[in-house]
Amino acid sequence: MGEGWWLVALGGAMGGMARLAVSDLFARRMGSGFPWGTLTVNLSGALLAGVLLGWLGSGATTAWLGLVVGGLGGYTTVSSLSLQTLALWQSGRHEAALVNLLGTVIVGMALAALGWWLMGGGT
User: What does the record say about its membrane topology (predicted)?
Assistant: First the structure.
């Protein structure tokens, strides 16, 4: 594994700390009625992933490992998305649960494509 292992670990730690900071900020500013922090983290992470794909290309380069696999892997979160969506559904807030889930997936995919395109992807 070499230096790639350390880059993933360091990026993951930094990404996780950034996720906590963003989630806490949104919880303080907007309350806990909807998982705004997780939505913001996942959507901004999708945009950054697209930007990095367009900038770096995909593959096991040291930059890709540290920034995407580690950093964005630690920053974005499927487990929080899943648990928060389930909690919304179980509390009878079905519409909010669907907005959270579909918004993250559909808008996230669009933002990843936008980031890739902005970096000259496909040219």
Answer: Multi-pass membrane protein
Task: Compute the average pLDDT of residues 57-86.
Answer: 91
Tokens of 8: 């993933």
What is the tens place of the pLDDT at every residue in 81-92? 999 999 999 999
Q: CA angle 11-15-18, nearest 5°?
A: 145
pTM of the model: 0.86
**Is residue 73 part of an annotated ligand binding site?**
yes
61's torsion region: left (phi>0), alpha (psi -120 to 50) or beta? Answer: beta
| Residue 1 reports pLDDT greater than 70 | no
For residue 71, give the amino acid letter. Answer: G
Residue partners of 95: CB distance under 8 A and separation at least 6? none
**Residue 76 known to bind ligand:** yes
